[in-house]
Specification:
- The chain is α/β, with parallel strands linked by helices.
- The protein is built from 9 helices and 9 strands.
- A hairpin with a 2-residue loop joins strand 7 and strand 8.
- Helix 6 crosses helix 9 and helix 7 runs parallel beside helix 9.
- One of its GO terms (molecular function) is N-acetylmuramoyl-L-alanine amidase activity.
């Protein structure tokens, strides 16, 4: 009798541990992925230290891609929140950890020297692995081109990764990010060289791209940081934060695509 009571008790406890019975035979048509963007980072260090930082501390990412060889590590399941974006904003949305997938690439970033910053290039094989991963993520979450952002896009006042040597054009060739038509940019640049738009115009165009940017019409440090973030992506050879004719042309052509 005592044994029978024990079996009954264990059965009841097991039933409680399983939770309520849920019928999953129906699925609503009105639904979509919680993931809205993918944010790219560099780790600023080597692979062993990157793995320690992203698995043992408070900072994390969904994926880490090594440099040589470009192994893809999944560190956080996509249905869970990773702590990679921090204080971040894009298209009016804030604190993007809850709606993004974070991908870290092993890359040392930059070193300060007498002639300024020296940036580390990305191995082509690492970018090949990234593109394959991005294509898979975007397909599964039904994300449109333009959903891939840099950490410097969503936090331009404090972050510069993935940096000016990240080959955004490779992602554009794969159809993953929008890219401005070079001839259209050249035509618009010639027009803007004769008459440069106001700072307020630049701020409005950057906001259309999705950046969090001041709207007071002054070329302050915050606005220059946003300009530099945009230039790192589309004109990496000179990302000085200057509101010039080429940057104006790039903005106008890109925003005309939307």
């Amino acid at each position: 009798m005592r044994a029978l009571c024990l079996v009954v008790l264990l059965t009841l406890l097991a039933g409680c541990a399983r939770g309520p019975r849920i019928d999953t035979q129906y699925s609503a048509a009105g639904q979509s992925s919680r993931v809205q963007y993918i944010v790219l980072h560099y780790t600023s260090t080597d692979l062993p230290r990157s793995l320690r930082l992203l698995t043992e501390g408070d900072v994390s990412s969904h994926y880490l891609i090594g440099d040589t060889p470009p192994t893809i590590y999944r560190l956080v399941d996509e249905n869970r929140r990773a702590w990679h974006a921090g204080d971040s904003r894009w298209q009016g949305r804030t604190w993007l950890n809850g709606t993004t997938i974070g991908i870290e690439l092993v890359n040392r970033g930059y070193a300060e020297g007498p002639d300024g910053r020296t940036w580390q290039a990305y191995p082509p094989e690492q970018i090949d692995a990234l593109i394959e991963l991005l294509e898979d993520i975007m397909r599964r979450h039904d994300l449109a081109p333009g959903s891939i952002l840099g950490h410097s896009d969503v936090a331009p006042q404090r972050k510069v990764d993935p940096g000016p040597l990240f080959p955004w054009w490779r992602l554009a060739e794969a159809g993953l990010v929008p890219w401005p038509d070079a001839q259209a940019v050249a035509r618009q640049q010639a027009l803007f060289a004769a008459s440069l738009p106001s700072v307020a115009w630049f701020q409005a165009q950057l906001a259309l791209q999705g950046y969090e940017v001041p709207r007071h019409g002054e070329l302050d440090e915050a606005t220059r940081n946003v300009l530099a973030a945009f230039q790192m992506k589309y004109r990496p050879a000179r990302h000085d934060g200057v509101a010039d004719a080429e940057t104006a042309a790039l903005l106008l052509v890109l925003n005309s695509r939307t």
